[in-house]
């Protein structure tokens, strides 16, 4: 959440609720949205680390609000983030660890684990497919998010088939 909030602040100052609305508008309802409390906690941490600074703005008919702006250090951290590649191979996958350890424990059967995981992936795929079908493409970022999740799930399902073939 830290870096996406920095990215939203790169275009100009904003308060926490505005940032939450920006995330919701950008990513759509498909993406699990943080609550506003989580956003404010993260903003506090970003301020402590010197990546943003906040300023109290007086409001006549409402409580004061705190508006945050990106610091030079925050802009630099954001630039590093954009230049960095995402290299996250799935070798630390929780399901794979269960699959690998099941025979050693005697507490779970590998094929049963695969079948249970497959059912979960298929359920998730159905839900995502409904979202994709309902999507009217007004929000291309949200559409791409759902499409990417579906493609990842399809790859996961193919991999489960491969696991089952190897282990049977």
Main attributes of the structure:
7 helices; two-stranded antiparallel sheet; mainly alpha; elongated; 168 residues; 7% strand; single chain
Q: Care to describe what's here?
A:
It is a single chain. This protein is mainly α and 168 residues long. It has 7 helices and 2 strands; from the N terminus they run H-H-H-E-E-H-H-H-H. It has a two-stranded antiparallel sheet. Strand 1 and strand 2 form a beta hairpin. The mean pLDDT is 87.
Short description:
With 168 residues, the protein is mostly helical. The protein contains 7 helices and 2 strands, in the order αααββαααα. The chain has helices at residues 2-9, 16-27, 36-48, 72-83, 94-105, 110-134, 140-167, and strands at 52-57, 65-70.
Give helix and strand order, one letter per element, not per position. Answer: HHHEEHHHH
Cα radius of gyration in angstroms: 21 Å
Alpha-carbon distance between the two ends: 42 Å
- Approximately what portion of the residues adopt beta-strand conformation? 5-15%
Helix content: 55-70%
Helix-and-strand structural type = mainly alpha
Low-confidence runs (pLDDT<50, min 5 residues)? none
What is the oligomer described by this structure? single chain
Count up the helices.
7
Q: What's the total number of strands?
A: 2
Main sheet: which strands, in order across? 1-2
Shape: elongated
Let me know the largest β-sheet.
2 strands, antiparallel
Average residue pLDDT:
87
